[in-house]
Fold this protein.
Amino acid sequence: MTLAIRQTVIVQPDGRIEIRSPQLKPGVQAEVIVLVEPTADVNARAARAAELAALFKEFQASPTAQTLTEADIAAEIAAYRSQV
């Protein structure tokens, strides 16, 4: 039977984590799986991505977007690239 130990740890500034348990005996082989909790930064990025997706859908449903052709898009890209 595999022994599972769950601990919440804080990652040190150098990226190091430390696990200590009396159940861990010297010389025993162990597999470590690290699950990183989402941070506010990850949640903020996900929220921005959702907002952008909603904006894209809104634009695609607009009458202006319905009349755009591939040629129009290619011309706009070419014009932008010529300015950069």
Notes: The two ends are 63 Å apart (CA to CA). The helical segments are 40-61, 63-67, 70-83. The chain has a mean pLDDT of 88. Residues 47 and 53 are 10 Å apart (CA to CA).
